[in-house]
Every structure is written in C-alpha cells, then in structure tokens.
Write a structure and sequence with these properties.
The complex is a heterodimer. Chain A is α/β, with parallel strands linked by helices. Chain A is about 30% helix and about 25% strand. Chain A is globular. By secondary structure, chain B is an alpha/beta fold. In chain B, the strands form 2 sheets. Chain B has an 8-stranded mixed beta sheet with strand order 6-7-8-3-9-10-12-11, with helices on both faces. A 4-stranded antiparallel beta sheet of chain B has the order 2-1-4-5, covered by helices on one side. In chain B, helix 4 runs parallel beside helix 7 and helix 5 packs across helix 7. The chains are: A alpha/beta, B alpha/beta. At the A-B interface, helix 6, helix 7, helix 8 and helix 10 of A face helix 7, helix 8, helix 9 and helix 11 of B. The complex binds adenosine-5'-triphosphate (2 copies) and magnesium ion (2 copies).
Chain lengths: ~325, ~325
C-alpha cells in the first residue's frame, strides 16, 4: 500500500545570486513497510527533499510545484497545526547534522524521554523510562551512559542517540538522512540489522538517504539515484545496482572502493572545455558523461521504462541496456 | 620519491582520561579512559590511517597532536621536541604547521562566516600575504577541493551548503596555510564515492607534491587502504595492530581487525573468507587487567586473555599486533 507519493516536486533556493534549483520534477512512491534508498552526489538535493517532506525547509526555499501525498493527503496543503500532528508522530527524521540535533545542556536520556512524552502526554513516567532504556539498548549505548551530556559522547554515539530519538514516537515513516555515516562498519551493520527488525515490527517505511551505495544495497528495496537535483534512475535495488544503465549510476558504482578490488577505481572525467554548470534544457550529467552523443546536446532526456520496476532518465537508455 | 624514515610526530605512552563533572544528582565522578598507554610514530611524508570503532579515541588522538587538549600522562613530540613545552611564539608557529580537518563540518564551520571568510581566516591570523595574494590562495584552495568556480561559493554561508560542500570548505581551510601536517578526521564521511575519490586524490597530491604528512582518521578500512601507507587499528584507546596498509588489509592479524573486515558492507561480491572473530553475544566484562577486546573476541582463551593486557609486538615487516594468539 502506498504510504508516500512524491509527485513532480520542484524546489528552489533564493540566494543573492538568484535562484538555485535544488530539486527538479522529482517523483517516486514508497510503500508501507518498505525502504527506499536515495543516493546521489553530494549537493544533489537529497537533504532538501527530506526537509520538504517534513515541511521544514528554510525560509529562502520555495516549493514551486508538486505534491507530497502522505496517507492520501497532500502534506503541502496542510495548515501548520495539521502538520504538527504529523511531524515527529507519523513522519520523523534523522537529520544529517544529527550530532548537532542534541541540546548540549540536557542529558541525552532526558532529551529522548522528552521526545517520548511530549507527543504522548498520557504516558506514565515509569513506562517512559522503560521505553527510553529500550531505545538505548536498540542503538547500543550502555545504560550507564544515559545520564551523560552530548559533549561527553563520541561522534558515533551522538548519532546513535539521535536515531533513538527519531524512533521515540513510533512513526510510520522515517526519513533517515545519512544515519550511519559516522559509524564504524561493525556498529553500522548492527544498527542496520536493528533498523530492519524495528521496521518489520512496526511496519515502518523508511526513506533512507545515503551516499554509500553498499549501505543502501543492504537495507533498501527500491533505489532512487539523483544527480544535480534530478532523479536519473529509479527502480528495484537488484535492477538499479545490479544492472545499472544511467552513466552516472555506473560511475557511482564503479568508484566504490571494495575490499577485493585492488585496481584503481574508475573516476568520472570532465571534459575540461565544458563548464560545471549544466544547461537546464539538457541532461544534467552531460558534461561528465562518458557516453554522451549528439542527441544529448540537442534535447532533454525522457524517462525510459526498461522494466516495470526499472526506469532511466537518459536518451541512450535503450542503447546502453541492449549492449 | 624516497620516503625518509624521519619521524614527524611521536606519541609516547599517552593516557587521556575524561572526567564527568560532579552534579547535584551524582556525587561519584565517572571516568572515561579515552586513551590508554598509547604509543605511535608518524613518519614524515606518510599518510597514516587511524581506524577503529566509534568512541575508540581516534578524534582524541588528533586533538592531542594539534594541542587542542593535553594528555594526562605521556609525551608528544614534534620533530623530537616535546610539544607540552611550547610557549607563545613557538606555539603560534606550531599552530601554523599543523592543521586539523574536523569530523563534523556542521559544527566546525562558523555559521557567521562566509566561505571566503572561513578559508581566509588562517591566513589573516598568521599574517600571511596581502589581500590580493590571499584572494588568490583562497581561490586555489577552493579549486583544489573542487568547489568550482570558487566565485560561486565565496559568498555562501554554511547553512546554504550541503553536507559534502561544507566538508570541502573545511578541507580548503585546512590546506590554505600549506601545513606540514594535517589531521584529517573523517574528512569524506559525508561524500559520495566519486567525490570521495577526488578528495583522496587531493590528499595524495598534497602528500606527493608538498610532502605533507597526514593522519587520516576514518572508520572505513577500504578508504584507509586506498589512501594510506600504513594503517593503525585502535580499540577502546588501545593500539591493536599496525603495519603497512596492504599487509594489514590482506593479512590482518588481530581478531578485531578481522572483525572490521568481516563487517565491511559487501557490495557486488560475496566475501570469500569470513574470519568470524566477533562473538555474537558479549562475555561478561572482567574486573581488572585483561585484553580490551576480550569480551567480544571469539578466539580469546580463559586464563590468558582475561588476566593480562597483550603488548604490541612486532611480527614481521613492520607489522605489529597486540594479541596473544596471532
Ligand atoms: N538554505 C540554502 N540556501 C541556498 N542554497 C542551499 C540551501 N540549502 C541547500 N542549498 C543548496 O542546494 C543544493 C542541495 O543541497 P542539499 O543539502 O539538499 O544536498 P544533499 O544532496 O543533501 O548533499 P550532501 O550529500 O552533501 O548532504 C546544494 O547545492 C546546496 O548548496
Ligand atoms: N570532552 C569529553 N568529555 C567526556 N568524554 C569525552 C570527551 N571527548 C571524548 N570523550 C569520550 O572519549 C572516548 C573517545 O572519544 P573520541 O571522540 O576520541 O572517539 P572517536 O574514536 O573519534 O569516535 P567517533 O568515530 O564516534 O568519532 C569516547 O568514549 C567519548 O565519549
Ligand atoms: Mg545532505
Ligand atoms: Mg571522532
């Protein structure tokens, strides 16, 4: 069942130099209990998308078009009061700046307990404490460190505390923006396992933002690949990561450092004569694309459906797909 | 280029303890031992990778080296000089020679400063150049970290940048002084694979062209192998294994290093060999001396690992391990 549907979402930021398009025509769906991975270059608009879903975009951002259907209502049409009933209770977010989300003057356990109680005022103190302890357990922070302040935590511990906070109100959708970025691999695999467990138990949907394709491959069912504010490949994990078609997805995957590969990974090359800034009427990856052809310099890409669960935003998709 | 074996930094039996303040609620003072009896040598011109789990003391080592903090016991030497003795002018000179790229670019960048102000600040503090030359150096720095064209970013403030862009600004700031030594604390943790490689190449270029020494703190063993000459693995403040990067990765000796390699996300391949050195359920902690990894170690033996702490011993080829059974 579809829980979230993002439709043609476009977001711009106003800056002194004019408008920056952070998201351009983004559309995807997320089912209850599923995990959708959002990967892409640094700066391609992943966090902006997360913030838009929380209706927490900064003042200089505007949503210029699109719909965000959550449980069949458009989040963008809700009043501030209505959105407050949804934010944190039904949709919560683990921010990318996670480590800073903690208030430095309060003990970590108190902050998590507050998150539990403010949204559930009928809860008894005893059971709030129990729940807090459970959450600490879940993210693997020893109970004896519950009463410490954020500055006493290492980077990774703070990140885990924030994950616990996002789970506090048992939401149905979590937007996790780089939730395991600060963690070592052992902890990361443990946290991913516990997220999976938690997800099954609560039938939780997760929008998992990450730049690490291996992590996304581990935890997600479907994958969206973004580049420069645009969605460029979308589909089932096995398709997108197993048989990628878009040249950017291919580059991203081949630059991934693995344990067994001794060779230097492939790197994207930029034609030094072209500028970094892409032409909005053409493909956003054009200047870096190793496959580009004449047609790419003449028209904007179109979505090519290679399979019901695999779509690519590239004019050469069929050609690349067929060999 | 021949890498000289001259040391640049040496840590000698460092112990660092953090104490939590007494509060109304608790009168007992909690101690967190961040580093325990840690000795480490960093050679001039090398990239040394420091890997270890969250909370193992990696950042603490970096902060001690650049003198943001002082050890409780033990000494740190820069070019054979004890850095605890530095005063005023020599301290200022010291600060221009060593730079740190901080772990969290959300916290380490001053939100009030534009990108230009952030990157130019070290030049102003150390009174280097005039406004034209500074402008040039800032541009160069930004171009090096691929914030191109620099003009697009100079006037931006941190809140207008993505996580990865901030991380690059932090790197640009650290390299603008062309320091001799950089502590890079997880400098690419927020970047995607392609940009990560670009940054690694920048760091390699700094090493090869400017002979800059780098302490590269990371939790990614693959990144460490790609970039580093040597790798040091630390666990709960103890140095567990140290050696040439390739050796440590392909022939790990310590059960903890093996566990790290096992846990590395598999992508597009199945790991042939699993070391299986990590216990599924931890043992009860031991009171008193023991191997720090004892409670999680599959191969630990009672009567040995639970009664003393193994010392770091050289195996071969500059590869040393602190384990009774390796
Ligand atoms: N408040 C803002 N004002 C102006 N521009 C902004 C603002 N916030 C973000 N941007 C710009 O919008 C683009 C998208 O930013 P966003 O933070 O969504 O990227 P991201 O995909 O999350 O990147 P990363 O992986 O590095 O975190 C970037 O180019 C960024 O510089
Ligand atoms: N100012 C402080 N006060 C109290 N404890 C601290 C302080 N700074 C660090 N610690 C503790 O010291 C230990 C080592 O911390 P450190 O930040 O060096 O870890 P790290 O290896 O960098 O971890 P991460 O990968 O999570 O960043 C941790 O247990 C941490 O909680
Ligand atoms: Mg982001
Ligand atoms: Mg750290």
């Amino acid at each position: 069942m579809t829980l979230l549907e993002v439709k043609d979402l476009s977001v711009v930021y106003q800056t002194r130099k004019g408008f920056i398009t952070a998201l351009n025509n983004i559309s995807f769906e997320l089912n209850r209990g599923n995990t959708l991975g959002l990967v892409g270059e640094s700066g391609c608009g992943k966090s902006t998308l997360g913030m838009a879903l929380m209706r927490l975009l900064p003042g200089n951002a505007s949503i210029i078009k699109g719909n965000l259907f959550f449980e069949n209502q458009d989040l963008l049409k809700l009043t501030d009061d209505e959105i407050r009933q949804i934010r944190w209770k039904k949709i919560s977010m683990i921010f990318q700046a996670a480590m800073n989300a903690l208030n430095p003057v309060h003990r970590v356990a108190d902050q998590i307990m507050e998150a539990i109680t403010t949204h559930n005022s009928s809860l008894l103190r005893e059971s709030a404490i129990k729940q807090t302890e459970k959450l600490f357990d879940l993210v693997n922070i020893p109970k004896r460190r519950m009463t410490e302040y954020p500055h006493q935590y290492s980077g990774g511990m703070k990140q885990r505390a924030v994950i616990a906070m996002a789970l506090a109100c048992r939401p149905s959708l979590i937007i996790a923006d780089e939730p395991t970025t600060a963690l070592d691999v052992i902890l990361q695999s443990q946290i991913l396992e516990s997220i999976k467990l938690f997800q099954k138990k609560l039938n939780l949907a997760i929008l998992f933002i990450s730049h690490d394709i291996a992590v996304v491959a581990d935890i997600c069912h479907d994958i969206c690949v973004m580049y420069a504010g645009e969605l460029i490949e979308y589909g089932a994990k096995e398709k997108v990561l197993g048989a990628p078609v878009h040249p950017y997805t291919k580059t991203l995957i081949s630059s991934y450092l693995t344990l067994i590969r001794d060779l230097r990974p492939l790197k994207p090359v930029q034609d030094s004569t072209t500028s970094h800034i892409s032409n909005p009427d053409l493909c956003c990856f054009l200047n870096y694309c190793p496959n580009s052809e004449k047609i790419c310099r003449n028209q904007k890409p179109v979505w090519v459906e290679l399979a019901p669960d695999h779509r690519v935003f590239c004019l050469l998709a069929n050609k690349i797909y067929n060999g | 280029m021949k890498t000289t074996t001259k040391l640049i930094v040496e840590l000698d039996h460092i112990r660092k303890v953090y104490r939590s303040k007494q509060t109304f609620f608790r009168s007992d003072q909690k101690k967190i031992i961040a580093l325990e009896c840690l000795s480490m040598k960093i050679k001039r011109g090398e990239i040394l990778g420091l890997v270890g789990e969250s909370g193992s003391g990696k950042t603490t080592i970096g902060r001690l080296i650049v003198k943001l903090e002082n050890p409780d016991t033990g000494k740190i030497y820069l070019d054979d000089k004890d850095i605890s003795l530095l005063k005023r002018n020599s301290l200022k000179n010291f600060r221009s020679r060593l730079q740190m790229i901080f772990q969290d670019p959300y916290q380490s960048l001053n939100p009030q400063l534009s990108v230009f102000d952030t990157v130019v600040e070290p030049l102003i503090i150390h009174k280097i150049g005039d406004s034209t030359s500074r402008q040039k150096q800032v541009n160069q720095s930004l171009e090096l970290v691929d914030l191109k064209p620099p003009a697009d970013f100079l006037d931006s403030y941190p809140h207008q940048l993505s996580g990865g862009q901030r991380q690059r600004v932090a790197i640009a700031r650290a390299i603008v002084l062309k320091p001799e030594f950089i502590v890079a604390d997880e400098p690419t943790s927020m970047l995607d694979a392609t940009v990560q490689l670009q940054i690694f190449d920048i760091l390699l270029e700094l090493k090869n062209k400017l002979n800059i020494t780098i302490l590269f703190i990371t939790h990614s063993i693959t990144a460490a192998r790609y970039l580093c000459d040597r790798i040091a693995v630390i666990y709960r403040g103890h140095l567990m294994e140290q050696g040439p990067a390739q050796d440590v990765m392909t022939n790990p000796k310590h059960p903890y290093t093996k566990a790290l390699i096992d846990a590395h996300p598999k992508f597009g391949y199945a790991n042939k060999k699993q070391y299986k050195t990590l216990l599924k359920t931890q043992r009860e902690p031991v009171n008193g001396e023991c191997c720090p990894f004892f409670i999680r170690c599959e191969i630990a033996k009672m009567g040995v690992c639970d009664i003393k702490t193994p010392e770091l011993k050289k195996k071969h080829n500059h590869h040393s391990v602190a384990c009774f059974f390796s």
